[in-house]
Amino acid sequence: MMKYRLSLFALVCVSVLLCSCKEASKSRLNAAVDDFNKNCPAMMNQFVMIQKVEYADDVVSMYVVMDDKISNINVLRENKELVKENILNTFSRGNENVKKFLETVTEAGADLKGIYSSSADGDNSFSVLITCDELKEALESDGQAEAMDVDKIIQVTNLNMPIQLNEYVTLVGMVKDGDCVYYDYDVAGAIFDKVTEDLEFSKMETFNNLRNMSPGDKEQMRPIYTSGMNLGYRYHNVDTDATEEFVFANSELEGLF
Per DSSP, which regions of the chain are E strands? Predict the structure, then answer.
């Protein structure tokens, strides 16, 4: 009888300890959310802004505003599972600061909800819920199976295509052709001539632009490099139907990452 009482007492102690640890984790998450919001609104890149983060009822809600010029919120809503998979892949390769925040989320046993809205119409939105277990799995995967991510990157990128960058240039889409992933552009004749008159200079300028991408955008593109693919830029002259391209060999991409 005494042995049973001691075991019951031990169970009670363990339960109290676990509850105490959980409350401490929630307290740390509240502090992390407060710190995050001090830097909000925060631009993830020139087209995506985190407006704020909230924590309530074991859910961390991240409010994200997307530039309607490059994001079709309705198309993204119709492909939420693909968007979710892309988010998880990105988290699996996230930088240390991002991972630290997300680990604080999982330690508190919270789910993560991304609430995406259009910059043109804040009422036009959709949400993606990532459970605590799904988030843990992504963080623990540490970027595994990245070669499979290339097709997903292409699919997600093409959800928003075509993008009219200006009156002379349209980004038509991203395609995989052999051992190369291409960005395909339709351009007016004058722009085509400017790009093609010195392809090496155009290539160097493009590489500098890639080098200056945000860390988040670089992580998004990393699987192209880690899977051994090359990266190409292909330009179609809409006036003459001519096509020209330049390609970064996989070894050249190493300098970006």
Answer: 42-43, 48-56, 59-66, 111-118, 125-130, 163-164, 169-177, 180-187, 230-237, 243-248
Tell the burial category of 163 from Cβ atoms under 10 Å away from its Cβ (0-12, 13-18, 19+).
middle
Q: Is the pTM of this model over 0.85?
A: no
Evaluated on CA atoms 175, 177, 183, 186, the torsion sign reads negative
C-alpha span between 99 and 167 (Å, rounded): 40
Six-digit token pair at 140? 């623990």
37: amino acid identity, one letter: N
Q: What angle do CA 30, 35, 39 make, to 5 degrees?
A: 140
Tens-place pLDDT, residues 20-43: 455 678 889 999 999 989 988 888
Reduced to 3 states, what is the DSSP secondary structure of residue 58?
Answer: coil
Which among 92, 103, 86 is positioned nearest to 48, based on CA atoms?
Answer: 86
Q: What is the rounded distance in angstroms from the CA atom of residue 120 to the CA atom of residue 247?
A: 35
What does the H/E/C string look like for 91-159? Answer: HHCCCHHHHHHHHHHHHCCCEEEEEEEECCCCCCEEEEEECHHHHHHHHHHCCCCHHHHHHHHHHHHHC
CA distances from 241 to 162, 186, 227 (A): 18, 10, 32
User: Which backbone phi and psi does 253 adopt, to 5 degrees?
Assistant: -70, -20
Please name the residue that has the structure tokens 């995406």.
116
Cα angle, residue 137 at apex, residues 131 and 140 outer, rounded to 5°: 140
Q: What is the pLDDT of the chain when averaged over all its residues?
A: 83
**Whole-angstrom Cα distance, residue 166 to residue 189?**
14
Q: Provide the phi-psi class of 178: left if phi over 0, else alpha when psi is between -120 and 50, else beta.
A: left
d(CA 191, CA 184): 14
